[in-house]
Amino acid sequence: MSAPTVVVHRDAEVLAKAVAARLITRLVDAQSAKGSASIVLTGGTVGIATLAAVAETPAHAAVDWRNLDVWWGDERYLPSGDPERNETGAREALLDRIDLDPARVHAMPSSDSGLTPEEAAQAYADELRKASRPEDHGPVPSFDLLLLGMGPDAHVASLFPGMPALYDERPVVAVHGAPKPPPTRLSLTMPTIHAARQVWVVAAGTEKAGAVRLALSDAGPIQVPAAGARGRQETLFLLDRAAAAKIPPGLVRPASP
Fold first, then answer.
1. What dihedral angle (degrees, nearest 10) is formed by the CA atoms of 238, 13, 156, 115?
2. 206 CB neighbour count, 10 Å cutoff
3. Is the entire prediction scored with pTM above 0.90?
4. CA 249, 252, 254, 257 torsion-angle sign
5. Is 105 helix (H, G, I), strand (E, B) or coil?
6. Which of 125, 30, 39 has its CA nearest to residue 90?
7. How many CB atoms lie within 10 A of CB 34?
8. CA dihedral 164, 165, 169, 171 (to 10 degrees)
9. Which DSSP letter does residue 238 get?
10. What is the pLDDT of residues 35-77, one digit of tens each?
11. How far is 189 from 77, CA to CA, in rounded Å?
12. Which of 7, 64, 69, 250 has its CA 20 to 30 A from that of 34?
């Protein structure tokens, strides 16, 4: 796994715009190299703001959106269209505003799908397996980019500190009793996150500063899940100044003011 690089921007608004620009470049580069690309989306305030910033910049036209596979890192197990679902926020911010191939938008099952959470997790794992190619060397695709938010408790996706999902090696798990509502969720597991070529952890706000410091320390991923969020080729922690306030200065790479 790659060692993390930290990039700090002035505030949450600038952070979202900067991540959006970086995201567009990453997808264009991947498509230039192999004709298509894949991305794993996250929810949360900054995650959705980033998608909105992608939609708002004319540069998004450089991406061949029809040749993009869209996945999610986690989802609240709620009815389809519920405003708390990550899918709903992503569709409103970006996905419904661009020309995507609907067959390549891989939403996690909803609670009104007729599946139990465990069946839904298995169904998503099966979809990932079908998309995996021999060169991926595993049960999930080697995603070009996997985005993660991070909670004040250092959770990523729906992998909360100390919970059984952090020990699970299946590609996708049902999470019950999450400390943040809603309590039932679906989540990629750490082995699936590690399959991504690039993992970007995006965080803003003073309430994240302690978690960011721990995530960049030698803490173990069971108690500090963000400490285990690493990509195969590159790991970026993309932060605003408030979230980076407790990081030793030597770890930070300068960014545009």
1. -140
2. 13
3. yes
4. negative
5. strand
6. 39
7. 10
8. 160
9. E
10. 999 999 999 999 999 999 999 999 999 999 999 999 999 999 9
11. 16
12. 7
Q: Which two tokens stand for residue 184?
A: 């039932």
Q: If phi over 0 gives left and psi between -120 and 50 gives alpha, with beta otherwise, what is residue 177?
A: left
Please state, in angstroms and rounded to a whole number, the distance separating the CA atoms of residues 191 and 248.
29
Cis check: omega of the bond before 102, within 30 degrees of 0: no
What gap in Å lies between CA 80 and CA 46, rounded to an integer? 22
Rounded alpha-carbon distances, angstroms, from residue 221 to 203, 211, 218, 240 = 18, 12, 9, 23
Provide the mean pLDDT of the chain.
95
Distances (CA, A) of 129 to 125, 138, 140, 145, 229: 6, 8, 5, 17, 21
Torsion of CA 103, 187, 54, 16, to 10 degrees: 180
Axis-axis angle for helices 44-56, 86-93 (nearest 10) = 20
Our CA dihedral for 218, 221, 225, 229, rounded to 10 degrees, sits at 80
Tokens encoding 196: 């991504």
CA distances (Å), origin 51, targets 89, 163, 218, 257: 9, 29, 31, 21
* Residue whose pair of structure tokens reads 């929810």 in the numeric block: 43
